[in-house]
Amino acid sequence: MPTSREPSRSPAIAAESTYTPPRLDDRTIAITGCTSGTGRVTAMTCGTSGARILMLNRPSTRADDALAELRDAGVDATAVPCDLQSFDSVREAAELLAQYCPSGLDVLCNNAGVMGLPDAATVDGCDVQMQTNHLSHFLLTSLAWPLLVAAAEERGEARVVNQTSGARHGKPLDAAYLGANGGNLGGDGFPGFGKWRRYQQSKLANLMFTYALHDRIPSTGPAAKVMSLCAHPGPTDSGLQAKTTAAGGTQLIDRLILWRTLRVAHPVEVGAEGILRASCDDDARSGEFYGPPGRGQPGPAELLPAERNPDSERLLWETSLATTGISDFFRA
Ligand SMILES: NC(=O)c1ccc[n+]([C@@H]2O[C@H](COP(=O)([O-])OP(=O)(O)OC[C@H]3O[C@@H](n4cnc5c(N)ncnc54)[C@H](OP(=O)(O)O)[C@@H]3O)[C@@H](O)[C@H]2O)c1
């Protein structure tokens, strides 16, 4: 039985992605948030193309169902418990990754996300959206770095792929959102913009992290063969929107934003194309940014223009290090 803290079950995915990756035999791919949505499609698509899949989910019946679905399809899939609302849980997950990846980790897909949650602090004191969407992925990537370098040395390349959103547009990155200021970041009162500003900041952080990492990857040795890429799914009918409503997102602004998204949303199989191409395409390069074309129009994923902002990237890097307690990202 699901507990009251657990989201309801998601339906089995109807299909794999419309995108066919190259064969991924001998590759190990770790994906956060693959109980549903783009993460689940990515896990199924990469798994049925030969990759070993490590499923980083917080424990739930949804996680159990997703694992069973991949195994039923013949995928070599392993569950790695990981609650992105807790840095301790992320550290435990990273220890398991090290055990499960003796010859390295080829791709780390930082896909999981929450949207439009109330102004609340995690156990670590951070904003629940920023910690789930960015800070825990920053910490996880740092802890998994030696595994990515090992894969790059063994098989010629490895990748970190972050998942951002069109909602990243708006105000420049503000350090307050990246610090331990959960519960004090705009509140939830009328007119209700606070939760959307916090989501915007977390999704902007995903893109700034991609570029900041790309710029800092060592230029020599096997680490130079680790790539940092980004994707966004476009408006996607994944169930993410229903979770916002279930978390109390019922103000007029919430209903308007969710209605506008779902009106043009495409299926998850299409929304997953960007993250799949960034994770799998043979000709993908570090610093690239993939997404679907148009506003919700299905079609081949396209390479998006870079949105570089050195000040935001520096602020992102330094504040994320301080908040996650890392002194050296590449030697955490
Ligand atoms: N759908 C859209 O229109 C849209 C648009 C732009 C960007 N995105 C981004 O795309 C990504 C995937 O979203 P989606 O649309 O596929 O939504 P989704 O179906 O709700 O998937 C989100 C995933 O994140 C997981 N997750 C949430 N909180 C977590 C936590 N504390 N620890 C571990 N995992 C957690 C969820 O697991 P649980 O089952 O445990 O909740 C779920 O597996 C997100 O980064 C989102 O911001 C989505």
Architecture overview:
The structure is a single chain. Residues 1-16 have low confidence and may be disordered. Helix content is 42%, strand content 12%. It has 11 helices and 10 strands. The longest helix is centred in the middle third of the chain and has 28 residues, at 128-155. Helix 1 (37-47) packs across helix 10 (273-280) and helix 4 packs parallel to helix 6 (194-216). An 8-stranded mixed sheet has the order 3-2-1-4-5-6-9-10, with helices on both faces. Strands 7-8 form a two-stranded parallel sheet. It is globular. Helix 1 (37-47) links the parallel strand 1 and strand 2 (52-57). The chain has 332 residues and is α/β, with parallel strands linked by helices. The chain has a single domain (28-325), classed as NAD(P)-binding Rossmann-like Domain (Rossmann fold, 3-Layer(aba) Sandwich), CATH 3.40.50.720. It has helices at 37-47, 61-72, 87-100, 128-155, 175-178, 194-216, 240-246, 252-263, 268-271, 273-280, 310-324; strands at 28-32, 52-57, 77-81, 107-110, 158-163, 226-231, 236-237, 266-267, 289-291, 302-303. The structure holds NADP nicotinamide-adenine-dinucleotide phosphate.
